[in-house]
Specification:
The structure holds two protein chains of two kinds. By secondary structure, chain A is mainly alpha-helical. Helix content of chain A is about 70%, strand content about 0%. Chain B has eleven helices and 27 strands. The longest helix of chain B has 28 residues. In chain B, α3 runs antiparallel to α7, α5 packs across α6 and α9 packs antiparallel against α10. The chains are: A mainly alpha, B alpha+beta. At the A-B interface, α6 and α7 of A face α3, α4, β8, β11 and α10 of B.
Chain lengths: ~325, ~575
């Protein structure tokens, strides 16, 4: 039959499109590096400089501002259109899944993976409408492809209704907002990870100054990545706070207590505290910059564990994966 | 800024620093903010000094950050190890499996992490730190609420956002237009707080940002207090009732009852409740066969004044009676059993809840039959109730669907001293068979009695008979809870959410405008400063400039400053 199977097929198709997009983004990132290296070399020749340190102290003017007449980036174009295509197919797959199950399509791990990936893509695409963040593309599409394939292979369950405890409009709100927060945290994690890499490269880390990491020079300066990541994290943190409050309201109705230190609640709390620590670290002398970025990495690791580990290892009230 | 801005130790705040670094525009040097903290060099600062130093450390941002990290780490063990509050049986099991480590973990409170001394210490210190930081900040903010924007600096070169242009309007007109633009349309809540001078405009917005920040932290404090008060005043009782029966809201009528230290038993409103019927629905499609789809308990509630009303309780839809909530937490079958002993006396009669153990309601239960007639053994029956039973070829029975389509009761029989006369409370759902004699058949296998509704079967070894009632009543497990702090918990949570949103998304900006006439042309300069990263700052400055009447695009950078005018939006 039918709708549910079509939905699964579309997810496979979306994963394929996004894999193509990832490769194209990677090609673009690499090619742009070559350009830049050439430009640099020309500059150096023009200036009669004899230094041979390539990019060790790259002052990195603004990335993304198309100051120099930039040649058409075909790979980037292909990457963007396949990303749009993959996102659109994922959206259709989600809608079909909802139709097949007759409810909001985010009640088990597979559906959570599907919708969370979609949100991450949408965040990336929307950001890209306002400014050039195509350097994120390879990582966002790569992560999403990975998520989708793992979801299809390991978390997939048949589309069906839900048990009485889940029959509540809070399923739409609490889980929906949690998924949105997760999607946003995914993109901000990529930014903070790039910030750390770029920062290390700029600081002359022996590993990251290898030629293989030239593409890092194409990413914005660490400070710019930091501020972009912060803006997303701020949104994600507010959504996560809402997830906790909404979850508590729902738990009060469904389980007879608003907070009971269920493993999922514990880890959601840990995530909240880690991101709260991140927001504090940003404004603390000596902790902003690199150290604050590590909080984002740790926070995202907790988000991933809260989703996978807590669902699959621990036995709690949030065991709705549908997997046995 | 005239008022002193309180800032906890170690906080980095470019906004205030930006002004502090200002070219002494108003003469007063802000007194806050010692230069980068140095390690104390004084050999002995006295006890009071020590206390003050400790307090300052505790309320510093750095320590708050450490405590936050500790809190996150300390919460983790509670998700890994079983917790008494959540699953006491699992704790007992763990202690049995790991006698040595279990004992040590228990000693350090690892099975009650969230009420352990160390977890409490972390969050209490965190809240002390929060109070020490937030209260002075609140006072400082309350004072600063009436502050005027800092005066227009002489030079704009050092500000991150700038714009300039020339206009045909006079400086007075420029000032008036900029002021009107910055104040915005609402008289009662101007966007910017604006001061004007001779050809200058100084404007500041975003006091609500700090207000939101303080509201968030104070709401967290309120939340913790509300939760604590709720813990002290709450009560919770569990009762299992079967169809047609009921219970009264009194401590003795609950199977289990727990309450906070401030709970008064008289505060229970003495209503009573009868379970009229219970219905359940299960999926029958192949995909989700036997998954539960709906549970509904129909009850009649009788208030103390005698008025009765019919109500329903569903999962997710607790029934609210007199400020208490009644939840439907479980359900199952309670077969009606009648046991006659060897003398023909009725030794046991009643409904026995069998607790479901899986999705198809394979339910386990225990009957403890006392020795009614003198000289007889006590009899224990252990068995399974199968709502829709099928008997496999090897003779074993199993349930295939949760609804009672062909119910079957399977019992094993034990005799001996069940300990019913010892006066020691027992778990009614468990029978310790260690010292009991099982009834065996000719092959030495335990006898299994199979009963369908209405059947009467002889107990083996001449122990009497057992009868299963015609109807199999349903039981529901109800959970009644009263927590007077709920409204407060919700209120403080929402306040925290609102405050947080404000503190993260309300921009805090200062904008200055200066205009002067030179060679018959009016030059206008606008500068902006923001707290933290603010992508909207340059647009704000540009909009302010655009509000100037008769503006012509800046032809040749009339700015006296040599610095580049437009820094790119992001670094």
């Amino acid at each position: 039959m039918e709708i549910a199977e079509l939905s699964d097929l579309l997810v496979w198709a979306a994963a394929t499109a996004l894999a193509v997009a990832m490769i194209a983004f990677a090609v673009d990132l690499g090619r742009r590096t070559d350009e830049r290296v050439e430009v640099k070399a020309q500059e150096r020749v023009a200036a009669g400089s004899v230094t041979t340190t390539a990019g060790a102290d790259a002052p990195a003017p603004v990335a993304g501002t198309d100051g120099v007449a930039e040649p058409r980036r075909r790979a980037a174009g292909i990457a963007m259109s396949t990303t749009w295509l993959g996102t659109a197919m994922l959206l259709v797959a989600i809608v079909l899944r909802g139709l097949a199950a007759g409810r909001a399509p985010w009640a088990n791990m597979y559906e959570f993976t599907m919708v969370g990936s979609f949100i991450a893509l949408v965040v990336f695409l929307l950001l890209n409408l306002r400014r050039d963040v195509r350097f994120l593309g390879a990582f966002v599409t790569g992560l999403v492809t990975l998520f989708l394939v793992v979801g299809l292979n390991s978390f997939h369950v048949a589309a069906t209704g839900v048990q009485p405890a889940l029959q509540n409009y809070w399923l739409v709100l609490h889980v929906g907002v949690a998924i949105a927060a997760t999607g946003i945290f995914t993109v901000s994690f990529v930014m903070s990870a790039l910030q750390l890499l770029r920062d290390s490269r700029d600081a002359g880390s022996p590993f990251l100054t290898r030629p293989g990491f030239h593409w890092l020079d194409r990413t914005p300066a660490p400070a710019a990545l930091e501020s972009m990541s912060f803006r997303l994290n701020a949104v994600g943190f507010v959504l996560w706070t809402f997830t906790l409050i909404g979850g508590a309201i729902w738990a009060e109705d469904a389980w007879g207590r608003y907070w009971g230190w269920d493993p999922k609640e514990v880890w959601s709390f840990v995530i909240w505290v880690v991101y709260a620590a991140y927001l504090h670290a940003r404004t603390t002398r000596g902790w902003s910059g690199r150290r604050a970025a590590w909080f984002v990495v740790v926070g995202y690791a907790c988000v991933l564990f809260n989703f996978t580990g807590v669902n699959l290892i621990f036995n709690g009230k949030h065991s709705y994966s549908g997997l046995s | 800024m005239s008022g002193r801005t309180y800032r906890p130790e170690g906080i980095a705040d470019e906004f205030t620093q930006g002004v502090r670094g200002g070219e002494n525009q108003d003469g007063t040097t802000p007194s806050s903010g010692t230069p980068a903290p140095t390690t104390p060099q004084v050999p002995w600062i006295g006890w009071r000094g020590m206390l003050r130093w400790t307090w300052r450390q505790l309320t510093s941002m750095r320590v708050a950050l450490m405590l936050l990290m500790l809190l996150a780490v300390a919460a983790v063990p509670g998700s890994i190890l079983p917790q008494r509050g959540q699953d006491p049986a699992a704790v007992v099991e763990y202690l049995g499996e790991h006698p040595t480590t279990g004992e040590w973990l228990d000693r350090f409170g690892f099975f009650e992490v969230y009420s352990s001394a160390w977890f409490s210490a972390i969050y209490l210190l965190l809240f002390v730190s929060l109070v020490g930081c937030i209260v002075p900040r609140t006072i400082a903010h309350a004072r600063a609420l009436r502050n005027r924007p800092p005066r227009t600096p002489v030079r704009f070169a050092r500000f991150p956002a700038r714009a300039s242009g020339t206009t045909s309007a006079t400086p007075q007109e420029v000032t008036a237009a900029a002021e009107a633009h910055l104040r915005g349309g609402r008289r009662w809540l101007p966007t910017f707080r604006v001061d004007t001078g001779d050809g200058t405009v100084a404007a500041e917005r975003g006091y609500l940002r700090e207000t939101g920040n303080l509201l968030f932290h104070l709401a967290l404090l309120g939340l913790v207090v509300a939760v604590g008060v709720g813990q002290l005043m709450h009560y919770r009782g569990q009762a299992i009732i079967t169809e047609g029966r009921g219970f009264a809201n009194a401590v003795v009528d609950y199977d289990t009852f727990e309450s906070g230290a401030w709970f008064q038993p008289e505060s229970l409103v003495p209503f009573s409740m009868t379970l009229d019927s219970f219905t359940s629905e299960f999926a029958t499609d192949a995909v989700a066969f036997a998954q539960s789809r709906d549970f509904t308990a129909s009850v009649t509630v009788t208030e103390p004044d005698g008025s009765a009303s019919a109500e329903t309780i569903k999962v997710n839809h607790p029934l609210v009676i007199d400020g208490s909530k009644v939840y439907l937490q479980g359900n199952g079958y309670a077969p009606d059993l009648l046991v006659h002993d060897a003398e023909g006396e009725v030794a046991f009669s009643g409904r026995v809840p069998f607790l479901p153990e899986d999705q198809v309601y394979t339910s386990r239960g225990v009957v403890k039959v006392p020795d009614v007639s003198a000289g007889l053994d006590q009899v224990g029956l252990i068995g399974y109730f199968l709502p829709t039973a099928v008997i496999d070829e090897d003779g074993s029975a199993r349930s295939v669907f949760p609804l009672p389509e062909s119910p079957l009761l399977v019992l094993e029989v034990y005799r001996g001293d069940l300990g019913l006369d010892d006066g020691v409370p027992q778990n009614v759902y468990r029978l310790d068979t260690a010292n009991l004699t099982p009834s065996l058949d000719a092959d030495g296998e335990r006898v299994k009695l199979l009963l369908e509704p209405g059947d009467t079967v002889d107990l083996p070894d001449g122990l009497g008979t057992v009868t299963l009632g015609e109807e199999v009543p349903r039981f529901v497990a109800l959970d009644l809870r009263h927590d007077p702090s709920l409204a407060w918990v919700l209120t403080f949570s929402l306040m925290a959410l609102v405050g947080l949103t404000g503190s993260l998304f309300l921009p805090r900006r200062r904008v200055w405008v200066r205009s002067w006439t030179h060679d018959g042309v009016t030059h206008v300069e606008v500068a902006g400063l923001a707290r933290g990263d603010d992508v909207g700052l340059q647009p704000e400055v540009d909009r302010t400039l655009a509000a100037v009447p008769g503006l012509s695009p800046d032809p040749a950078e009339p700015t006296p400053d040599p610095a580049p005018t437009h820094e790119t939006k992001e670094g």
